[in-house]
Amino acid sequence: MSTRELKVVLPDSLAKEAEVSGLLTPESIEALLRAEIRRRRVDKLFAAADRLAALETPLTEEEIEAEIAALRQSRRPPDASRR
Fold first, then answer.
1. Coil, strand, or helix at residue 56?
2. What is the per-residue pLDDT for 62?
3. Which residues are CB-contacts of 33 (< 8 A; sequence separation ≥ 6)?
4. In the structure, how many helices (H) and strands (E) does the chain have?
5. Measuring CA to CA, which residue among 36, 4, 42, 39 is closest to residue 23?
6. pTM for this entry
7. CA 72 centroid distance within chain
8. pLDDT tens string for the chain (83 positions)?
């Protein structure tokens, strides 16, 4: 795995507080960045779901079942359709 060195400019008070809290170690910074990336991905997923919900009328239970069946059928190998 390749690495990258970063230089971060922080106000003294924040830097001191972060250092006392153990947040300026490479492991802590990596964990913070990974958590933020994960949070942003989840936010994007929910934003997309909200946009989708705003565009379409809700599906009935029968329509949902039909969509699931169609997706399952499309994922089956051609020779597995006769089980």
1. coil
2. 92
3. none
4. 3, 0
5. 36
6. 0.60
7. 24
8. 899 999 999 999 999 999 999 999 999 999 999 999 999 999 999 998 888 888 767 778 898 899 899 989 988 887 765 55
Contacts of 67 (CB under 8 A, 6+ apart): 59
Contact indicator for 37, 31 with CB cutoff of 8 Å:
no
What are the structure tokens assigned to 63, written together? 């329509």
Sequence-ordered strand ranges (E) for 1-83:
none
Domain ranges of the chain: 12-76
pLDDT for 4: 92
With 0-12 CB in 10 A as exposed, 13-18 as middle and 19+ as buried, what is 75? exposed
CB-based contacts of 81: which residues, under 8 Å, 6+ apart?
A: 73
Task: Quote the CA–CA distance of 8 and 6 in Å, as a whole number.
Answer: 6
Determine the pLDDT at residue 83: 53
